[in-house]
Amino acid sequence: MNKKLNSNRGFTLIELIIAIAVLAFLMTAISSLMTSSLLTNRKTQADIEVQTTAQETYNKITDALMQAKSIYVLGYIYSGTPDFSKAGESAGGSPSYFVAGVYDEKKYAVRDVVTGELKVDATKDKNKTGIVNELNLYGISANVAEVKFFHELAGQDVYIKKLVIVTSETLDITQVPSASPTGSDEWDCTNAITSQLITVKRAPSGTGFSENDTVVHVFTFDEGNLYYEKEYALMTGKNDKVSDWADSDAVRRNIFSNSMSYVTTDDEPLSGCVVNLNPDKGSLAVDLYFSDKNMTYTSLGMVNVRNSYVLKAKQ
User: Fold this and answer.
1) Which of 32, 74, 218, 293 has an alpha carbon within 20 to 30 A of 200's alpha carbon?
2) For the chain, what is the HEC assignment?
3) What are the distances in angstroms from CA 205 to CA 173, 179, 185, 202?
4) What is the model's pLDDT at position 292?
5) Sheet of 186-190: strands edge to edge?
6) Contact, 96 vs 148, CB < 8 A?
7) What is the mean pLDDT of the chain?
């Protein structure tokens, strides 16, 4: 009687080695593919984040500029051509600091009491003092020796340290902590910026008021950080300011973007916010440079200010 033998022979050692080698090769390939895909995804996500931040920052600044009732620029003139492609790169040189505003002969005219002729130098000095006093109201220190006028900066690249933009906003009397009713449709309110007492009346139509609120927007560029503050003259409950720059937590809350590119010089860092003024046309070219996680992005554009007197006052 023939017996059928069952073969229970397993893998040989060589076959096991070959199988393990093939499996290791496949695992390495899969791991490499997954790592590459993950890095690509992170790079894409980082690029999207930088682009989103850039667009939001550009929109915030340009929206305020278009609505401006007045603009003040604090920054630097620099003879070189800084490369903002990588944050923190050294550019060398010594930038020149200045404070700038509009030259308004009509507002600050100084005339000879006898002849009535305009005193040009005295008018310029009074303009400069007016700009300094206005900035002091907003808590920004400046001195007359630093002041330039916008027409002196026309066509030059200006590297921004602070951009101060004053706009107006529809008043909501319920948001005015200082409002004291003096009649059914009338309130006395204190302007927190100027400390003046003003009377606000409801419009005859029943909607709106005789006054709009003044809003001061301050954009501060400090190396890679952009800080944004907003101060209301009447609706002070909506204020969003840094009360103490020595308080790191308070300062951190007002960071609008931490992706700004910048270069270092022999004196002061220059942030990647570059403005080129054209007072005659009432426009500003605004260039913003960003750099984060080895991602770079640039927003370039021209902003036309709605109020013609903001950059070039009537003489």
Assistant:
1) 218
2) CCCCCCCCCCCCHHHHHHHHHHHHHHHHHHHHHHHHHHHHHHHHHHHHHHHHHHHHHHHHHHHHHHCCCEEEEEEEECCCCCCCCCCCEECCCCCEEEEEECCCHHHHCCECCCCCCECHHHHHHHHHHHHHHHHHHCCCCCCHHHEEEHHHCCCCEEEEEEEEEEEEECCCHHHCCCCEEEECCEEEEECCCCCCEEEEEECCCCCCECCCEEEEEEEEEECCEEEEEEEECCCHHHCECCCCCCCHHHHHHCEEECCECEEECCCCCEECEEEEEEHHHCEEEEEEEEEECCEEEEEEEEEECCCCCCCCCCC
3) 16, 21, 11, 8
4) 79
5) 180-183, 186-190, 197-201
6) no
7) 89
CB atoms within 10 A of CB 264: 16
99 within 8 A of 147, measured Cβ to Cβ: yes
Written as six digits, the tokens of 61 are: 């600044």
Residue 27 CA to residue 127 CA, distance in Å, equals 74
Q: What is the pLDDT of residues 231-264, one digit of tens each?
A: 999 999 999 988 888 888 888 889 999 999 999 9
Cβ count within 10 A of residue 58? 20
User: Residue 259 has which token pair?
Assistant: 């992706």
CB 184 within 8 A of CB 140: no
**How far is the C-alpha of 310 from the C-alpha of 65, rounded, in Å?**
10
- The pLDDT of residue 39 is 62
Q: What are 27-70's pLDDT values in tens digits?
A: 887 877 777 666 655 656 656 777 888 889 999 999 999 999 99
Say how many C-beta atoms besides its own lie within 10 A of residue 61's C-beta.
26
| Residues contacting 152, CB < 8 A, separation 6+ | 100
Span 172-183, average pLDDT: 92
